[in-house]
Amino acid sequence: MSRSRRSIAPFAVVTALILMTAACGEPTAPSESTSSVATSEPTASEALERPEQQQVDVATARAALPTLEDLPKGWVVNESPVSHAERTYDPPECAAVEFRSAEAQTFKKAHLEVEERVAYSEWTQGVAAQLAVTLYSFSEPFPTTLLDQAGERLGDCSAYQRTIDGAARSWATQALTTPTVGDRALGIRYTAGADGAGRVTDELTVRSGHNLVVVKYLPTTTTYDDQALQDYAQDVLDRLEKAS
Questions:
Q1: Do residues 119 and 131 lie in contact, with contact meaning Cβ atoms separated by under 8 Å?
Q2: What is the rounded distance in angstroms from the CA atom of residue 221 to the CA atom of residue 148?
Q3: pTM of the model
């Protein structure tokens, strides 16, 4: 691990170790010092020569993800299952915000080689902060156009509805200040409920050549800890670099 255990802002005690429970509060506004989409602009003919930009195998992906040793004291593995059920969106174009547009799904189906994920929760007498980090590795470089589309759709998709297995849920979204990490990065805050009164989820998506790192963090307050998200994403890339 290239960094010591992080201290992710103090958390309030809430009610059960379950993802996406409700909590109240308004999201903090992004600072003006950082663009909502951070880029290291690729050239028309990307070289993609760095080790962390190359396609990796399952073992390398697993070794690059954070372990409990990388989390603050008092965290545990979160074993909540992840749903792979089909999703629909209203308006339909808002699927692009979650990288689930037809174009994104087509690319994933054709080129996804590795998908590895870890998830952790702060241990309290109820639900607390939660963190999930997923590493995708593709046989082709992940298209930067998909990050462009996600960012562009945020304005029209500040509120939309997602339906999974017939259960619809409303979400409010906003762009977050995004640290410069990888080739291209995008930060989005999702708030449960169209009125923006539910629990927030902060998500940082980082593209590095053939690899995509997604850091999803559910705080118990509305404070946005961009440094923590950047650190977790950068640590994954650093481990991929050292694994070469």
A1: yes
A2: 29
A3: 0.82
